[in-house]
Design goal:
Shape: elongated
Mean pLDDT: 79
Number of strands: 15
Number of helices: 3
Distance between the termini: 51 Å
Low-confidence stretches: 1-45, 238-253
Helix content: under 10%
Length: 253
């Protein structure tokens, strides 16, 4: 069992302040966000103190589970998943309700945080991730009623979000993408009830209007047609003048 003096200096996460302070937030061109706040990487919380409860779950003689309490209520719980004596997952609790508030984690055990989850009323509300482990946020996932509702991604690592996916009852139904990096939607894809491509509209010349429409059956291309100039419509019926990418609370999809 670890003594208090052994635990007083135990790190609660492998990431150091200098590692997280430089985590890039999603850049935004004015035409992309129109004043909508960009997502900021969470700042490292203040840490310290001696754990109220310590456990050695794997029996190797070293602590790998720490619980901190305030006024008798659990407020923080830390886990060391790779037996190196340094916590790589931290769960924060609401001292009033006892429900989870947030979780931060080093999922690939490289010593840097790469996942931040926020909860509302005990249900997952938002997750921010660095999925390629390069130190920069690239995926933002929003939940409604505990189920995924929307996901935004920076797929090419340029700091700009270029994919937005919408879900209904946890199922992918629609996808909006910026393929050429100009900050505007140029491809919209609809999916069937098995998440297979159903229809895809594309703006190939960048004028904001549909040039090509493709139809799919069972996920396979069945027909593609050029849209005549007289019939062309906005590539996104929700209008490209509205903010495309966002990082605020759970807007309606």
């Amino acid at each position: 069992k670890a003594r208090p003096e052994e635990l007083a200096g135990v790190r609660t996460a492998k990431a150091r302040p200098e590692e997280l302070a430089g985590v890039r937030t999603a850049k935004a061109r004015p035409e992309e966000l129109a004043g909508v706040r960009t997502a900021k990487a969470p700042a490292p919380p203040k840490r310290g103190g001696v754990a109220d409860q310590v456990a050695d779950r794997n029996g190797d003689g070293r602590p790998d589970h720490w619980i901190y309490r305030h006024a008798g209520r659990k407020v923080r719980e830390l886990f060391d998943e790779d037996a190196d004596s340094a916590p790589d997952r931290t769960v924060y609790f609401d001292p009033g309700t006892g429900k989870e508030q947030s979780v931060e984690e080093d999922t690939n055990l490289d010593g840097r945080l790469d996942s931040w989850i926020e909860y509302r009323d005990g249900q997952m509300a938002r997750q921010r991730r660095d999925t390629d482990y390069d130190g920069f946020l690239d995926t933002w996932t929003f939940y409604r009623g505990g189920s995924i509702a929307r996901e935004e991604q920076d797929l090419n690592g340029d700091g700009f979000r270029n994919r937005m996916a919408f879900y209904e009852q946890g199922r992918l139904v629609r996808e909006r993408e910026d393929q050429n990096g100009d900050g505007r939607v140029d491809r919209v894809t609809l999916y069937d009830d098995q998440e297979r491509v159903l229809q895809r509209d594309e703006d190939q010349d960048g004028d904001g209007l549909i040039d090509t429409r493709s139809y799919y059956e069972a996920g396979r291309l069945s027909r593609r047609e050029l849209v005549e100039d007289t019939l062309r419509e906005s590539v996104d019926r929700e209008t490209l003048t509205e903010p495309v990418w966002s990082s605020g609370p759970q807007e309606e999809s």
